[in-house]
Amino acid sequence: MNSTKKCVLACIDGSELGNAVSGYAIWLSQNSQSPIKFLHTIEHSHRTEHAHHEGTLTPNMKEHLLDELSDEERSESKQLIAEGKEILNKARQMAEQAGLSEIIAKQRHGTLPEALEDLESEIIMVVLGSKGEDHDGNKRGLGSQLEEAIRAIHTPIFIVKSEKLSEPKKLMFAYNGSPTSRKALEFIKQGTFCTASLEVHLVSVQKNINDAVKLIADAEAILAEGNINVKTKALSGEVVDELIRYQQENDIDTTAMGAFSHGKVHGLFFGSFTTSMLLESASNFLLIR
User: Fold this and answer.
1) What's the pLDDT tens digit per position in 223-244?
2) Which CATH architecture fits 166-288?
3) Contact predicate 92/105, CB 8 Å
4) What pTM did the predictor assign?
């Protein structure tokens, strides 16, 4: 494999979205003619099954407890590694059946955001599920590490929200003129994600409809430089509500937008547009920071 060629990175676990994450990563790998890398991270959060409730531990009791914890941690680690290998082997087989040959499957210890920071220079795009194993069965909500993972890097991230795997047909690009939105505009213009069959909808929502019209005109001209043909719509009103309504009325399956243009503190006090969209929308997402 060409070590200098950037890859599509699929971050997989044993969650309900795992197969869809692998499938979309395979599609992106084929579309961009890039190698594919499957990553499974093992984050240890060990808790002993044998609680000790004594108020005071003698030296012998402490030593016994440490030995007990060490044995349990080794057993847990072996089990997690074995489960991870099975998940990676399944993903590799899926990629091979799709005709891919440049395939890497890796397992590493630590958190997902840490792994993304370390690997950012090697990847062209990341594919993540909106929820991991800890959130299986929860129809609403986002994975506990998702925002931190998105904020960890500035590489485009494809967020999978549905277990149903199907090639993207309609992409809504939500444009508001912010720095991250302009960066997303340049990415869309490059055509890395946009296939000939993908219907691109350029949508802007502003309080003043004239502002939305101007933003649409500016963005459409830039996309035309990349031969990206778009359907356009300028809207006024509450941003999340209007974008969700447009998605539903036009059967949008993928939403592209700049992500987390404000810092964590701003989001803590005022809420995040990115998080609101991820929570309220049923579509998959292409996020650019």
Assistant:
1) 999 999 899 999 999 999 999 9
2) 3-Layer(aba) Sandwich (3.40)
3) yes
4) 0.84
